[in-house]
Every structure is written in structure tokens, then in C-alpha cells.
Amino acid sequence: MLRDKVWLLISRRKGAAKVLSTDLAYDTFTRADGVLGSTELVGSDGLPCTARAWVVALGIIEVVSQQCKCTALGPTHGIATINPLVRSVSVSAEVTLSFPSIAGVIGSYVDGNNFILAYTDGGHAILYKFIGGVGSALDVAAIVYGNGKVLKLIINGTTVSMNYDGLDVGIPQTVSDAGLLSGTRAGVWLTNGVNTIYDNFKVVLT
Fold first, then answer.
1. Rounded to two decimals, what is the model's pTM?
2. What domains are defined for the chain?
3. Which of 36, 94, 126, 135 could, after both became Cys, cross-link 199 (CB 3.0–4.6 A)?
């Protein structure tokens, strides 16, 4: 079942079970400066994890000093995603804003006009959705911002919620728009400026 906390891969050659990471994707960006490349082969729990290719849809988002950084918008936003192949996931990253940037993580991503977003402006966590390029705020919650604190978007079927610095914030919302139900990509997003930093990006089943 997709909700299992531990996936087992049965080896036909040896008849043994291999325990895989509970992470669908994990990235510390610990590699040479330049293109994002792929997420890591080892999850946050130290177990084998699938490497998934990053695709930069807007702007220039790359590895800089072993972190993920947007150095140019394209033209007004930066978006980079991977495909965990599952829609019901939590997407999280440590976010350090470079003001006046606002930035966060995205899920149910179909394209640059259709996705769900949790972002921070430095004083709030905001839950948002884009349908056909039109954005709608779903919830706004006050937070105590800090550089490198973890922002998490949680998608469980049609229920969507946020977590910041280990605390659930705001009120879970229902998002059942047909245009978002097929989106399985997840990633990072920002606007209003550059040089925001992401680290320890992670995608986990919900």
C-alpha cells in the first residue's frame, strides 16, 4: 500500500527483502556548484532512496555552496520540481529568505499555472492554489520566522495543510479542483526577488 511507512523491494535474484527509505525524494544539495541534477540516492533515514531529476521550469535555480539557490527569476518567478509519481505527499524544505523574496514549496504541480503552494513572507505561512494561472489564498497563519526553519506543505487526498518549524499552522483546507488532481510533481517556488536558499528538501508519502 502507498501509505506503508516502509516500502519493501523483493529481490528476485537473492529472494531477500531490501528496506527502502520512507522518503520519496531527499536532497541536501551536497555537490558541485551548477545545475540541480538529481535528488540523492540515500534518504534522510540513511536508507536507499530513488534519485529524481530536477526540472527548472522558471528562472535559474541551481546548486550554490551546497545549497539550492534561485539566482534569477524567469521573468517573475522561480520554479523547480521533481516527480515522486504520487500526489498525496508532504513536501518540505529549510527556507532562508532573501528579502523581499517570498518563497516556499509546491505540490500537485501540473505546470506553471496549476499547483498548490505553501510559502512564507517572513511573518506568515500562506496556503495558496493556482488554477489556470489564477491564484487564490486558502489560508494565512502567523509564524515566528527564522532562517533555515522547515516549511512543509501536506497534501492528503483533497485535504491540504501547512507545518512550520515542526508546528501545524493554519486550518486544513479542501482542494478538489479537477485541474490539480492529476499533478504529481513537487518542488520549490519563489517570487519578488532572488537569492533565497533552500536546503534539506524532502518528499514523503502522507
1. 0.90
2. 18-205 (2.60.120.560)
3. 94
